[in-house]
Structures are given as C-alpha cells and as structure tokens.
Amino acid sequence: MPHKESEMPMSIGIHDLALATSHHSLDLGNLADHYGIDPAKFRVGIGQDVMSVLASDEDIVTMAADATARILERNGTDGIRTLLFATESGIDQSKSAGVYVHKLVGLPSTVRVVELKQACYSATAALQFAVGLIARDPSQKVLVVASDVARYDLGSSGESTQGAAAAAMLVQADPGLLAVEVPAGVFTEDVMDFWRPNYRSTALVDGKGSIKAYLNAIGGAWQDYLAQGGASWEDFEAICYHQPFTKMASKAHRHLAVLSGHNPTPDEVAHQLEDTMRYNRLIGNSYTASVYVALASLLDHHEGDLTGSRIGLASYGSGSVAEFFGGVVQPGYRAHLRGEEHRAMIEARVALDHTSYEVLHKTTLPEDGREYQTNREGTGAFRFAGMRDHQRLYERS
Ligand code: CAA
C-alpha cells in the first residue's frame, strides 16, 4: 500500500542551533601552575583544556540574547509563539531571564516566555515541551534557549570544571538539522550531588558522589528508553552527553556500552566521542547548554555525511533527572550549520592570566540594591550595564 501524504508521521525537531560564549577564557594550564599541580590532571584526567569566563558586563542574558539574535537573523520571527528559557544560574527569583532576551532581540509581544529549571537537564525538558506544542499546532515554532555560567569556589575541586555558554535552538516541523524521535527514556531520583542554595553565587557539590549519581541516572534513563521500545545501542551513529567535563562523557559512554553488552577500550570510547567534545574541551561546563554544545560540536566537525544517522542525546541534571532520546540527522543539514561562526567565537575569546581571572571571580554584584555600573569589557552584541532601583539594566553594545 503506498503511503498517503496525510499518513506520513510529521517530523519535529531542531531547525537551527547557535552557540554563544564569554568574552574571556582561562587556560587550565594557568590554574595548574597556580596550584602547583600537573596540568595533565586537567587536560587528560578531566579532559578539559580551557574554560570560558564571563566579563563583568556579561551574564546568562547577554549570552542567550547573542545566540538567539543570530537564530533570528537567519530565520526571522515568523511562526515563533513561545520562548522557553532553560537555566540553573537564574538572575531573578520571579522574572524569567527570557523576558529580557525577548526585548533585547526584538521578539513580538505575541511570543510567550517562561523559564525552566532542573539543574543541567531543563533544556531537554524545554525541547520536549516544544515538540509537544508543535505537534498540537505544526504552524508554530518555539525558541529553546539554554544559558548558564558554571561557578565553583576558588580552590574547590570543581574550580577546573567551570565554564559558560548559551545554546539557542529553533524548534519546528520539518526541521533542517535533527528530527527528535519518540520515545524518550527518563529517570528521576532525589539526590544531593550538586545544588546552589539561594544565598550562594557558587554551587556546592559532592564531586565523587555526583559522578556516581550521573552514571546511575543516565543508566536508568537508557534502560527506560529501551523499555519504551527505543532503538538499540548498535543503531546509534554517535551519542552526545551532558559534559560537565569531557571525561565524564567517556565514563557515561562506557557505562551505557557495558549495560548494552559491549566493552569498548578507552581508545574506542575516545574515538567515538571525539567530535562531540571539541567545543566542550574549550568552553568548560555550560550546564543546561552543554549537551547541545556537544550536538553542535558533532555536527560541525564530523567529516562523513551524517544524513539519516541516528544520534543519541543523553541529558543529566543533578538533583537529579536524566533523559535519553534519539534524533535523526536531516537531509541538507550541512546548509544549516554554523561551524565557522562557532570556531571563530571560541577563538576570539581574550585569554586571562590567573590574577585577572581571580579578580573577576571575586567580583560579585552588590546585594543591597545600591546603584551599580559594570565596566565596559565584553565586545558581544549585548551587555549587562548594571543595577538601578533593584533592576538589572541591559543594552545593545
Ligand atoms: N595525569 C592524568 N590524569 C590524572 C592526573 C595526572 N597527573 N592526576 C589525576 N588524574 C585523573 C584521576 O585519576 C581522575 O581520573 P578518573 O576519574 O578516571 O579516576 C581524574 O584525573 C580526576 O582526578 P580526581 O578525582 O583526583 O579530581 P578531583 O578530586 O580534583 O575532582 C571532580 C574531580 C570530582 C570531577 C571535580 O572536578 C568536581 O567536583 N567537579 C564538579 C562536579 C562535576 O562536574 N560532577 C560531574 C557529575 S554532576 C553533573 O554532571 C552536573 C553538573 O554539570 C555539575
């Protein structure tokens, strides 16, 4: 029986994906020198070379606006009815950071905006919610914007796993990059592996416990994915993992491979994940954005044609929630990529010496509502200008 057009399942997924990161960076060699430890611990042991560091006039809003503006430059605003902002470094207890982005990039008032939080996982929830909205009305498009800055205390074990980035995605029917498949496997467990109480600007973490919690949750999500009728291990061309540090992705990949009856060597794991890690090695942890930074890295760098290939996305947010799902790379996807733009943005960062990094790290906003102006430092399209009357001020550069 030939398929009737109306019986063809509609594909929904990521049409365009743009990244943004900070003005500054810190080579982890500087951190190793400062603490007198072997740089191989960072470069090999945790798999990170450089981390992005925000200028004092940058934050999650300026990075998110930068990435979103580039999506709109290419695609316009037609059909966009929703902006879902995912973050765990929120700037306000009430107002969504996405509303500031909405204004900065000039979205129409007929776009609803909301912020989602569940540690590094919420961008994946946002993507699935976007798919649901579009399934209900395929004429609508959704912006999913993930933006985070990963900050730990100076001298803590997490310090080498900081970073910052935003990933903006245009989600729609008949996407250009990746069609999101059904089913998804999910896993939730109440665990205190990583958290940030309201009164702190840096996260608290049980480092070793968080690695165990990640592996346990991602394994649970994978097993649920299989139980829901998902594709088997062999059907995946590549898997993009949440990467708090790239070595964590290697640990997770090996864990899922073993659960699936395989026993890859470290070299095989490194080879299988190499293209998904290129940006993350240079940016560091970007929390909610991280797994989508990994997806951009894979698509921007994979030499062979990925058309029709199934890519796995393994998302983890401490606390904890994990999700595993697949997506199929779409014909003509290369025309939608932004590899040169992304590489240029990462290379353009201004390298800090250790002293300047420490000064920036210690610079925090006044908490008493007094007027405050940031230094003009970043060279991105948008800047955080300061605070007045308890309000955050943003402007175009
Ligand atoms: N050469 C090569 N490798 C070296 C080395 C050297 N000279 N010195 C140490 N190493 C290796 C170690 O053997 C170890 O490897 P394995 O994990 O494979 O055993 C690795 O480097 C790290 O060494 P340590 O365990 O001694 O490092 P540490 O105690 O300083 O802490 C960490 C590492 C726990 C990851 C810490 O960086 C941390 O707390 N990070 C923040 C928490 C985090 O990212 N957790 C990840 C899961 S939670 C999550 O994913 C959510 C999120 O985004 C936060």
In short:
The protein has 397 residues and is of the alpha+beta class.
Largest sheet: 9 strands, mixed
Instruction: List cofactors, ions and other ligands.
Output: acetoacetyl-coenzyme A
Q: What is the general shape?
A: globular
Series of H and E elements: EEHHEHEHEHEEEEEHEHHHEEHEHEEE
First-to-last CA distance = 59 Å
How does this structure look, described?
- This protein has 397 residues and is α+β, with helices and mostly antiparallel strands.
- The protein has helices at 28-35, 40-46, 60-75, 97-104, 122-136, 207-227, 246-259, 266-283, 290-301, 339-347, 354-362, and strands at residues 12-21, 24-27, 50-53, 80-86, 112-116, 141-150, 163-173, 178-188, 194-195, 204-205, 238-241, 310-317, 321-329, 350-351, 372-373, 382-388, 391-396.
- The strands form four sheets. Strands 5-4-6-7-1-8-13-12-11 form a nine-stranded mixed β-sheet, sandwiched between helices. A three-stranded mixed β-sheet has the order 3-2-14. Strands 15-16-17 form a three-stranded antiparallel β-sheet, with helices on one face.
- Helix 6 (207-227) crosses helix 7.
- 49% of the residues are buried.
- Residues 1-6 have low confidence and may be disordered.
- The protein binds acetoacetyl-coenzyme A.
Can you tag this structure with a few keywords?
397 residues, alpha+beta, 9-stranded mixed β-sheet, 3-stranded mixed β-sheet, 11 helices, disordered N terminus, binds acetoacetyl-coenzyme A
